[in-house]
């Protein structure tokens, strides 16, 4: 064994059919960065020993795994991140293009969202699989002239030696040119809405994970998600006060982020795509920014809220050639 370049790492991800049981990677990723590792927590004894030193023993009290994976959004592998983050999926073939599928991800109203196995091959030095992984948070970011990117924070059980063989599927990526952002008074109005002249948009899904701790083991038995939240930011040039006023007046809107790679055809005439619909949002924290020699920009935050009339908060639709997740 010898020193290795981080580029020689292979990162795989698979959906577990039995919660906490290692799954074979379905996709081997092409990350921009990866920091997923075994973790421990230790406790030092405070018992007295007749000396002034603070402790004479320290033991491992907990073993687990945690870290983050960042990368560009691809049209197939990203489905597993959406499933882990949002909770459930329904897959249907397109009526006009039967080899192409729309995968509709919606919020699972449960404390147990699907678990994943993350496998890391560290060159020829080490290869481990980490089961029972849950997504703590998932951030998706798009800005002009850049790849659409994501960052996923995960937590799972301690790793064990594995021997999966990396293999990479052909996938399609998305760029800023593929993205449009729409705002309307409700979901029904989004189809006919004019795209906002946005420069950058980011959404962050947070799961508020809690460990299921039990006696008899130093590993968490499971990871449970608590309250589900979605927030984000939107940046535009300061042409008028509309967006600021919506924030200051507490206006309610629906938001759509459409990402469609029109330069790539799949099936007969379809295109790889990813859509996020937020049924009800309210804006916050409007900020005008820029130096004296800059064009003024307005950045506003927003929070996704549950819409009782639509019976949803967020929905994502991923279109590709996969039949299911």
Top keywords for this entry?
17-stranded antiparallel sheet; 19 strands; 51% strand; mainly beta; single chain; 325 residues
Structure, described:
- The protein is 5% helix and 51% strand.
- The chain has one domain.
- The model has no long low-confidence stretch (mean pLDDT 95).
- It has a 17-stranded antiparallel β-sheet that branches. A two-stranded antiparallel sheet has the order 13-14.
- The chain is built from two helices and 19 strands.
- A hairpin with a 2-residue loop joins strand 5 and strand 6.
- By secondary structure, it is mostly beta strands.
Secondary structure topology:
Blueprint: E1 9-15, E2 27-29, E3 31-44, E4 58-72, H1 78-86, E5 87-94, E6 97-107, E7 116-122, E8 126-143, E9 149-156, E10 160-161, E11 179-184, E12 198-206, E13 209-212, E14 222-225, E15 229-237, H2 242-249, E16 252-260, E17 273-289, E18 297-304, E19 314-320
Antiparallel strand pairs: 1-2, 1-7, 3-4, 4-9, 5-6, 6-19, 7-8, 8-9, 8-10, 8-12, 11-16, 12-15, 13-14, 15-18, 16-17, 17-18, 17-19
């Amino acid at each position: 064994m010898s020193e290795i370049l981080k580029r020689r790492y292979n990162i795989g991800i698979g959906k577990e059919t039995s919660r906490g049981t290692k799954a074979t990677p379905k996709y081997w990723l092409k990350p921009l960065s990866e920091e997923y590792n075994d973790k421990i927590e230790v406790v030092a004894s405070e018992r007295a020993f007749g000396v002034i030193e603070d402790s004479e023993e320290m033991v491992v009290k907990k073993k687990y795994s945690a870290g983050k994976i960042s990368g560009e959004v691809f049209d197939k592998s990203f489905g597993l991140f959406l499933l882990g983050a949002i909770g459930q999926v329904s897959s249907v073939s397109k009526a006009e293009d039967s080899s192409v599928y729309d995968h509709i991800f919606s919020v699972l109203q449960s404390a147990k969202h699907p678990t994943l196995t993350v496998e890391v091959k560290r060159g020829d030095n080490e290869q481990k699989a980490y089961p029972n992984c849950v997504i703590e948070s998932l951030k998706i970011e798009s800005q002009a002239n850049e790849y659409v990117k994501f960052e996923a924070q995960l937590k799972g059980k301690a790793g064990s030696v594995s021997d999966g063989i990396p293999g990479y599927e052909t996938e399609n990526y998305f760029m800023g040119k593929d993205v449009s952002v729409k705002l309307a008074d409700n979901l029904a109005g989004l189809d006919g809405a004019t795209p906002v002249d946005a420069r950058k948009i980011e959404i962050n899904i947070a799961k508020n994970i809690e460990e299921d701790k039990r006696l008899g083991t130093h590993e968490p038995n499971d990871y449970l998600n608590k309250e589900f939240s979605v927030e984000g930011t939107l940046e535009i040039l300061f042409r008028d006060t509309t967006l600021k006023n919506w924030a200051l007046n507490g206006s309610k809107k629906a938001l759509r982020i459409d990402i469609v790679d029109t330069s790539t055809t799949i099936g007969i005439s379809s295109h790889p795509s990813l859509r996020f619909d937020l049924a009800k949002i309210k804006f916050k924290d409007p900020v005008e920014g820029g130096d004296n020699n800059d064009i003024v920009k307005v950045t506003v935050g927003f929070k996704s809220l549950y819409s009782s009339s639509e019976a949803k908060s967020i929905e994502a639709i991923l279109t590709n050639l996969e039949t299911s997740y």
